[in-house]
Design goal:
The complex is a heterodimer of chains A (127) and B (107).
Chain A lengths: L17 H31 L2 H11 L2 H28 L6 H28 L2
Helix pairs in contact in A: 1-3, 1-4, 3-4
Chain B lengths: L2 H30 L4 H9 L1 H29 L3 H27 L2
The chains are: A mainly alpha (127), B mainly alpha (107).
Chain lengths: 127, 107
């Protein structure tokens, strides 16, 4: 049976706002994160198969490209964390005013960069 | 309670749970990702790490399956394609975490 429910119009027809940017980025980072988690599952599985199987992963992750990808994944996690908190606050009924929505959107965008640096510094220096 | 409401509640609970788990995981992962085999193995040998990592991947796949199915709902018109995509999504959400948890339990 053909589904009669309407589909979302293509995102290109909308004028871009901070809220829409945060919303689409939330979806994109969600997909990036699950690809990242899948990669980490493969990495964890390779550990159980012995040192020789892990060698290629180690070489890749300690390369400049590996470091860049991990930094990108950290930003994606940071964005998702802040955006999820924003969504949960909105689910409680707060932050729907246009001005508040813009401010919280900006906090998510700028905060994700600050959080990425913070996570990196904590991970590298305190653990 | 209708299915859409149940799905929304599960999405919110898993999303709220995912926040502290993501923070815990990413900080620890940054600490070990460029370390050698033994250092990474020590992390996954700890029973606390194994437990939290297992909860993290189960929750991450559950949350992703629910939220990606929303994307399918929004942008895929053909019901057959949508059903196949959803089934593949939910199957991968069960198979990948299960295999990973079984394998890390042997470390």
């Amino acid at each position: 049976m053909e589904n009669k429910s309407p589909l979302s119009p293509h995102i290109q027809i909308y004028k871009w706002h901070i809220s829409s940017l945060v919303s689409i980025s939330h979806r994109i980072t969600g997909i990036i994160n699950i690809i990242g988690v899948t990669f980490i599952c493969v990495l964890a599985s390779l550990l159980s198969l012995g040192e020789s199987n892990y060698e290629m992963t180690y070489l890749f992750l300690s390369s400049q490209i590996g470091k860049f990808l991990i930094l990108g994944l950290t930003w994606s996690f940071s964005f998702q964390i802040l955006s999820e908190i924003r969504h949960l606050i909105m689910d409680l009924g707060y932050g729907f005013e246009l001005k508040t929505s813009k401010i919280t959107g900006l906090i998510v965008i700028c905060g994700s960069i600050v959080l990425t640096v913070t996570f990196y510094l904590i991970g590298k220096n305190f653990l | 309670m209708i299915n859409a409401t149940k799905k929304w509640i599960f999405l919110k609970i898993s999303g709220a749970l995912l926040v502290p788990l993501m923070i815990w995981f990413i900080i620890n992962f940054i600490a070990i990702y460029d370390q050698d085999f033994n250092a990474v193995k020590i992390f996954f040998t700890s029973s606390v790490s194994k437990f939290l990592f297992s909860i993290f991947i189960i929750n991450a796949y559950f949350f992703s399956a629910l939220s990606i199915s929303e994307v399918f709902e929004d942008y895929i018109k053909n019901d057959k394609i949508k059903n196949v995509a959803n089934k593949l999504l939910f199957a991968s959400g069960v198979v990948i975490p299960s295999i990973t948890i079984i394998l890390i339990s042997t470390i």
